[in-house]
């Protein structure tokens, strides 16, 4: 998250800067525009060369490690949490009964495939049209989201949508933007004229990155929201997040550079429509309650059998060292205290038990719902 903040911050800044550049008379050859900025008690005068200046300064700042560290630390977290504990977080037998190595193999292969398809689209004739390329990229991400939600657990699917987007963004920096910049620099040092296409390609990929930042942030924290990850239409929700996030980023970018809000008004109803559909889809379904009496003892027995493996003072689940969120479900008083949370997580969303490792039955969920409703 720390590396991501640094990366996204620089991405936001440079895209806003790029759009705010103004062409003024009397500029040096090769300068595409300049901007005056005020911050931190001083003024900054920034110029952008479309290829490169005639001479390079001794101290040239490269912005790359923010992107690299975000991806590396993110992938390490993916390994530690979702690969090493695949049975808990990545695999859901009710979705697809995968083995640990099958799930890991699909994960790695999908990230590589996503980058290959994305870069092929950018290099194809489709890449010459910004609108068509955006539509194709959206369709590609939606297809991956559909595939992930039909292969992995809800949490595993959403984190992989984020991992795919993050991989595309980091690979853009590592494999396109920085190499192209190095080629421009090398040509300049040799006294040759740099290829202007290299800068144009780098700008295209950088622009893609900034439009993907808000959706990838949402995916990074998605495992805290089972109403999204464990939804029957999770892949549709992923598409709505990508669409609304991209449109919101467009509104912010163009606002930052002084465009009139009247010219950006078309984004507002689209964003609101996407959010409205999201609200509709995530509405809790009507509870199916148990038709009959459920005693305190029976409700407690269900929770002790299905939930207390993790939610106990001394968890028996090998992957859990401390009860999540400090919630203990070993006594009737504790059951009553956390009844509202149990109703949301185990009865409504069915997000718990995690990956349903203890095999909670729908009838047991219905009985808990009935017991809670009558408290």
From TrEMBL:
It holds the Pfam family Urate_ox_N. The chain crosses the membrane at residues 68-86, 98-118, 130-151, 157-178, 211-228, 234-252, 264-281. It comes from the Bacteria. Residues 292-375 form the Cytochrome c domain. InterPro entries: Cyt_c-like_dom, Urate_ox_N. Keywords: Heme, Iron, Membrane, Metal-binding, Transmembrane, Transmembrane helix. One of its GO terms (molecular function) is heme binding. This is Cysteine desulfurase. It comes from Aestuariivirga litoralis.
